[in-house]
Specification:
274 residues; alpha/beta
């Protein structure tokens, strides 16, 4: 299936909020969200995307564009519609969860290094940039995602990253009784490693976390590879947020189509990117 058809199938009127207000509506929210997700699916920069659309009018029709937008419009859309990009991702994630019931959630964050960000720490040491906090299911597909500056601590975000599942897996950075209780309140068995600095207990890592942590690490590699450090090429927190959530939407769009086709592996994303 063509990439433009994948985006059109998943990013539809049911997911995108309707545009409210009078006057000229321009391209409309639906067309904007489709083109931003399509751009990330194809891993194009703005200039290459414009050339691509001019050479392939059929893609414009698939995406609902009456004409090829100017490059400056793309930058404006990333700035003005970051929250809608996030909402479209959340709606896509809900569709994915209806197709695949979560047995477990693996929670982690990954750094997005950028000089515009703030100094933070991860398992490799200090860095300057932003963080993408995510939870993925047993297929490695993103269930919840939050984009923040790099200086944010991981632990407080766990309650916002969980959803109904059987087990919740997280490393010692999330070691807090409040996080374990948040999991229990949702009917999730917490499998969170103990941190000796935050707990009187000795360090302990659940065996299932050791076996399944690769799921979130694989997802982090795929999403960062698909963005190709493009978060460094746009300026401002909101534009970077748009890029991240448009990338997540593109990944889920391909994943939803692959699930409907009988696939059940996040690596199908790479095979459908043509």
């Amino acid at each position: 299936m063509l990439a433009s058809n994948i985006i059109r199938l998943v990013v539809n009127k049911e997911l995108v909020p309707r545009q409210i207000g009078k006057g000229r509506r321009g391209y409309g929210n639906l067309a904007r969200m489709r083109i931003l997700a399509y751009q990330r699916l194809m891993e194009f920069n703005d200039s290459r995307l414009i050339r691509h659309l001019k050479a392939k009018p059929e893609v414009c029709r698939d995406l609902g564009l009456r004409k090829v937008p100017h490059r400056t419009l793309l930058s404006r859309w990333k700035k003005n519609y970051a929250d809608i990009n996030e909402e479209v991702y959340n709606q896509s994630a809900e569709i994915m969860q209806r197709l695949v019931e979560a047995d477990l959630l693996v929670i982690d964050s990954t750094p997005l290094e950028d000089e515009e960000g703030k100094c933070g720490y991860n398992s490799s040491g200090p860095f300057v940039g932003f963080k993408l906090h995510t939870s993925v299911n047993q297929l490695g597909l993103p269930v919840k995602a939050i984009f923040t500056y790099g200086n944010e601590n991981d632990s407080p975000f766990l309650p916002r990253l969980i959803s109904p599942a059987n087990y919740g897996l997280a490393d010692a950075g999330y070691c807090a009784e409040s996080n374990r209780q948040a999991c229990r309140d949702m009917g999730i068995v917490p499998m969170i490693a103990f941190n000796r600095r935050r707990s009187k207990a000795k360090y302990w890592q659940p065996p299932i976390l050791y076996k399944k942590r690769y799921l979130v690490e694989q997802f982090n590699a795929i999403i960062k590879g698909s963005m190709n450090k493009c978060w460094q090429k746009v300026k401002g927190f909101t534009r970077k947020k748009s890029v991240v959530f448009a990338s997540l939407t593109a990944l889920l769009a391909v994943s939803i189509v692959s699930l409907l086709s009988g696939e059940s592996d996040i690596r199908a994303y790479g095979r459908y990117r043509i």
